[in-house]
Amino acid sequence: MSTHHTVVIVGGGQAGLAMSWHLKRLGVDHVVFERDRVGHEWRDRRWDSFCLVTPNWQVDLPGFPYTGDDPDGFMPGAEVVTHLEAYAASFAPPLREGVTVTRLRRTPDGVFHLETSAGPCTAGQVVVATGPYHAPAVPRLAERLPAGVVQLHSSQYRRPEQLPDGDVLVVGTGQSGCQIAEDLHLTGRRVHLAVGSAPRAARRYRGRDTLAWLDAMGHYAKGVDEFGDVDEVRLRANHYMTGRDGGRDIDLRAFAAQGMQLYGRLRDITAGSLGFAGDLAANLDNADAVAEGIKDAIDRWIAANGVDAPAEDRYVPVWQPPAGERTLDPARLAAVIWATGFHRDHRWIQVPVFDGRGYPTHDRGVTSCPGLYFLGLPWQWTWGSGRFAGIARDAAHLAGRITAAGRARMAEEVSWLAGTATETFPRLEWAA
């Protein structure tokens, strides 16, 4: 393969497909390179009982809104894959599955050169839609665990039966860590959970899903530039809750009352001991405070708008942790699951658009390099940017920038060609 495209989209998940839908509707020549298959992230990096945390009505891709019979339900992982496959089939994007982009660079003449597993190609513009979750992040202290303890990253966990009999330590309380801990707990496994600083939210409040209230309040439309510290907002952990069994709260205190062992952050591993910080009480209190703060905001909005909503009693903690630090003998553990997130890996992009942490610097996905864009990043523009809820808005914005940039480049080339009468050039076209 050695060819040129007006636009190359790298990544064929929901972000890349949404971008392709807009470009195809506008008649813009493009191709979508997907390293694996459509839905790979949902197909191969989720456990069996996984469900979306966001309600089905938020699965609103461009030209393909949710039309099922359970808008307030939560799609299981397999259904998400099926939905994305149906989306691709609905408009037949120029999709090439099984093609890995291994290098991207831009020459001084403004042309992007891509090296792929199917051969080289060039592009006038490139959209990176590979998301933020590239390489599993496991701390180096994992190397200090005894060799007999099975270790998995959360992306490798599928079901409780996958693990040997015995106690399991889950490290991390983002959405994945809490849901995996619950999955194990519900089967009767003895679970130890290292609790971090992730916030939580109630699944429902005053008669509606909490996310439905936040949507009505305009939270999903609030741009990241409306916050005081953009970088801090983009690094925030997501609130933990679950869509399992129709959706419910995840209350770690209730799990503890039922026998789950809670600890603070995993601090160190030495011979014969895992040491945990003494911050468990603070972490639980802070998570509860965030959940109650969201309820406060909902209450204020209900009152200000005269909405008829049932009253609801507030949360009362059912368990209090003991004070101080705790330790755990690794000999008690059969397995450890590292729910410690992912690293970004953009080493294949050899264009200077990254900050000192490796994060792509951009404004609503538009980088400082003309013609290079990102789509599908968390808080790219709004809270919904990294979710199904905000992909359509972000993709539409980039489509407008791409077509405007394409028309400008065409005008420059036409102007140059007008002064060159001795050579024959192909006709330039740009569909808008």
Automatic annotation (TrEMBL):
Transmembrane segments: none annotated. One of its GO terms (molecular function) is flavin adenine dinucleotide binding. Signal peptide: none annotated. InterPro entries: Auxin_biosynth/cation_transpt, CHP04046_FMN-dependent, FAD/NAD-bd_sf. It comes from the Bacteria. Keywords: Oxidoreductase. This is Putative flavoprotein involved in K+ transport. It comes from Paractinoplanes atraurantiacus.
